[in-house]
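Record type: monomer structure entry
Structure origin: computed from sequence
Chain ID: A
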Amino acid sequence: MKKATNEQIITAYKKTNNVWKAAQLLGMCGQSVHERLKKLGIKLNNPAFTKKEEKILKARYLLYRDTGNLQELAEQMGRTKYFLCRKAKELGLTNAEHKKLWAQSWKSMSKEDAEILFEKFKKSCLGLGQFCSKYNLGKNGFYDTMTKYFNDEWEHIIELKTPKQSMYRLGRQVEYTARDAFRKEGYFVFRSPASKGPADLVAISKNIVIFVQCKRGMVMGVKEWNDFYDLSKSVNAIPILVGRPKGYGLVYWLLTGKKDGSKRPQPKVEIRIQDIEQITTGQER
């Protein structure tokens, strides 16, 4: 987000006569511009609602309403909460058939909007399925969007919301399924019960040795990740993390480096089990 002086904000607002348009011109969020103008004592006008503003309201109204953040949306758009509610009613957004309208745009959802849902989910006592059901969310779209923007933190929240007994049972199912999948591809596989070995699974073929960690949510802290990666490399084994983050199927990550504790993307590549040997053949491990 860009920083702007008071003079620049006042000039942009006088030029556009609209908080939201002024914010766009300055590369800022509407809420910040609105707050700065109020502090500066600038009288705000309420010009006619544009087609572009209608489009934004249609995309965001139900999201902000259902998560208790309508005031924030009003400030972003330089309007009052009452005005937005009245306009939403005029546009038919409060009708029952529109209750999933905003949820149809997961791919275009901004991080700012996604964070509204993320914070609501974190504070809720509901699990993933219950939360999506209550707020009329498509489970897959919601999950993919949260993973896209919040990565490790999202997976950690999912684990915290899952009962420990269920976590153990589900984690063991992932381990057994991964074992069978590697065996099907021709590997000799043995397990380390209760994770007392260097990995949950060790898969061996004629050419390679694979260390496999099984984490249903595919969450590994910095130390655990780096220890596993270093151990694998020290014995020339391929480090693979396997999980079932969406509750079905298996996802395979080839660990390509150590974590540094930052919020940058994790050093990994998603691959198919059939391609592990091909991808790693000839690489220095």
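Annotation 1: The chain has twelve helices and six strands.
Annotation 2: The chain has a mean pLDDT of 80.
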